[in-house]
Amino acid sequence: MKYLLTILMLCITTVSFSQTKIDTLQQKFKHSTSEEEQLKILDRLTKEMIRSNHPKQKIYLEKLISLAKKQGDYDLAASKTRFIAQQHIYGGKPDSAIYVVEEMLKEKPKFKKTKSEAHLLLKRGGAYFNKELLDVAAKDYDEAADLFLISGDSIFAADARYFAGQVYTNLKDFLKALDRYENAYKLYSILGDKQYANLAQTELGGLYEINRFYDKAILEKKKSLREALVIKNYAGVATVYLHLAGNYFHKKELKKSKKYIDSAVSFIDSITSNVKQERTKTYVEIYSLRYYLEKNDLKNAEKHLIAAEKQKEKTDAPEYYNTFIQYYKALYYKKIGKYNEAEKALNKILSKKGRISNIGTYVKAEKLVAEIYALKNNYKKAYEHAVQYLKAKDSLDREINTNTFLYYQTQFETERKDNEIFKKEAAIALLEKDNEIEKNKKDTLWIIIIFILILSSVISYAIWKQGKLKRKELAKKIADNKKELNAYTKLLIEKSKTQQSLTEEIENLKEEIGAQQSAEKLQDLTAIKILTNEDWYAFKEKFKRVYPNFFASIKNKGFELTKAEERLIAMEKLYLDTKEIASMLAISQDSVTRSRSRLRKKINAPKGSSLLDYLEAS
Fold it and tell me: Which of 232, 255, 234, 233 is CA-nearest to residue 245?
């Protein structure tokens, strides 16, 4: 009994600790008379409030910002302003977020830290993205990334590049989207963030596929596949296998497509998330349906069509998957001669014109419906849809052809620059070779000089031994020899100076050519990724970018979670263990275990089941 009472007291103490800490800091702030001390207290207080999502955090954040400005600490004021902006974005008020950021940016000349401006631009970029003002969002993300790199905050630079890649993809700027995703991938890789590096790699493969660089898409997706296998992201592995199957469909290599579909199937049971597992099963049925239609095996095609329509209902977005199924359903009905059924299926796709993310599906639907009307002898409608198909196809082809031209132009210019560098490096190599030859010549000449000096000394000694009578005549000859020798020595010294000057010019040239590479290497030096309490909201923003519908889906299923429970289930979604969750939330491992237990009771989850799987599957 005494033991149980102790546990109960510890539980109560742990639960109330965070709130007690906030209350204590509020009391300290209330009774403090020193503005300097008040600022320190407010800094600690707002960190705790942000961490616990305290309802009064905005009030105290505004107090801190006002006091920080008064004391001249504009970097601290900027740092806290981003959290107010974040609250406005999450609250569906992007205009308010933009306003508070721009008000703080007016104080930019007073910032001492480069990252102060960068954080504000990152938040404003997010607000513009929510308002669908994509051009200005891209500008803010790019500027934020550049500033983060200057300040050494590579993790935020990687995030900014990744967000910019998303914006440029929506703007249909293929080259810039490609560049931003590649940059994000490199930064995430350097930081060791394998999950987000893999995500950026997958986005790259998707970009190449959309623009019909199928071989390049396959190459990128195979890289992504290897990385997903290393980090045991089995849902990602299955998805990439299916994407590869799709690429080989485009290349008309059906055997390889079937091989990758089967590979995806082999990983389904390893996927721990029920939602992702159902999505993968649905894609497998759709890709199998497509395979058997390509093979004209209508019996197996029908079997997978029925399975796909049933399976889509088990997913979290049945209407989304239904769009893809309708096209292959129409193709199946066309092959068996049921033209009215094919027409109905295609009209479901065409009714979503402008709302289908994959424009290629709409274009194919226009073509197929034109063919159906022609088979039904309705040539008027066949002509109307043929015209729509040609317009949509021409528009899509122009966009892809432009992207293809720009991509190859960039590749050509890069190759030409590489050739210029190669030529300069070859010139340097020749100069270095000449330098080596001249050095060898100089060494040989010095050996000759030494030999001559020794020989002269021997001759002088021999002449001296011969007697006084011949000494004067020999002395004159020796003097002449010495004069000649001195002139030769002077010539050698001048050559040596000339050679030294040439060596210095070569070294300078090497330094100039290597300067750019050195600068690029310096940018690769990065700071250690640290997720502090103050950075929690940046973490949460990144989480919502990857799983945008996660919390909304849980809420729509009738689960009303507290903020603390949302944080816990977000950690579960990232597959963190108890120790990692405790470390991230700055609480004990026992507290994490008790929080799970309370949440399990609250949602009536069966014992032994995963909280995450239960919430997503309900």
Answer: 255
pLDDT for 81 equals 93
What ranges do the domains of the chain cover?
422-523, 547-617
Written as one string, the DSSP assignment of 18-64 is HHHHHHHHHHHHHH---HHHHHHHHHHHHHHHHHHT-TTHHHHHHHH
Is the pLDDT assigned to residue 512 strictly greater than 80?
Answer: no
Q: What is the pLDDT of residues 553-569, one digit of tens each?
A: 888 888 888 888 888 88
Distance CA 123, CA 140 (A): 9
Mean pLDDT within 37-53: 88
Contact 123, 89 (CB under 8 A): yes
Contact 47, 70 (CB under 8 A): no
Distance CA 186, CA 155 (A): 11
* List of residues 6+ apart from 504 with CB closer than 8 A: none
Residues 261-284: tens digit of each pLDDT: 999 999 999 999 888 899 899 999
The residue-averaged pLDDT of 12-22 equals 57
Q: What is the DSSP letter of 547?
A: S
Q: Which two tokens stand for residue 503?
A: 């060596």
Please tell me the distance from the alpha carbon of residue 293 to that of residue 86, in angstroms, as a whole number. Answer: 49
**CA 421 vs CA 367, 418, 515: distances in Å:** 49, 5, 12
Tell me the two tokens of residue 163. 């967000």
Model confidence at 427: pLDDT above 60 = no
Q: Which residue has the higher pLDDT, 229 or 15?
A: 229
Q: Which of 275-279, 341-345, 359-363, 512-516 has the lowest mean pLDDT?
A: 512-516
Given pLDDT bands bounded at 50, 70 and 90, which one contains residue 534?
A: low
Q: Say which residue the tokens 């945008």 belong to.
A: 548
Tokens standing for residue 328: 């292959």
Long-range contacts of 186-189 (CB under 8 A, 24+ apart): 187/154, 187/155, 187/157, 187/158, 187/161, 187/526, 188/158, 188/162
Q: What pLDDT shows up at residue 252?
A: 87
Residue-averaged pLDDT of the chain: 77
Tokens of 497: 């100076």
d(CA 438, CA 446): 12
- Cα distance between residue 332 and residue 308, in whole Å: 13
Task: Look at residues 115, 103, 50, 102 and name the one whose alpha carbon lies nearest to residue 76.
Answer: 115
How far apart are the C-alpha atoms of 154 and 304, rounded to whole Å? 47
One-letter amino acid at 318 equals P
Residue 123 contacts residue 111 (beta carbons within 8 Å): no
Give the whole-angstrom CA distance, residue 462 versus residue 474: 10
Helix, strand, or coil here: 329?
helix
- d(Cα 318, Cα 314) in Å, to the nearest integer? 7
Q: Is the pLDDT of residue 409 over 70?
A: no
CATH classification for the domain delimited by 547-617, as one of 1.10.3810, 1.10.3470, 1.10.287, 1.10.10: 1.10.10
Distance CA 277, CA 116 (A): 42
Distance, in Å, from the CA atom of 224 to the CA atom of 204, rounded to the nearest integer, reads 9
User: Please, what is the end-to-end C-alpha distance for the chain in angstroms?
Assistant: 38
Judge contact between 562 and 549, C-beta under 8 A: no
Q: Which residues, 6+ apart, have CB-to-CB distance to 143 below 8 Å? A: 118, 121
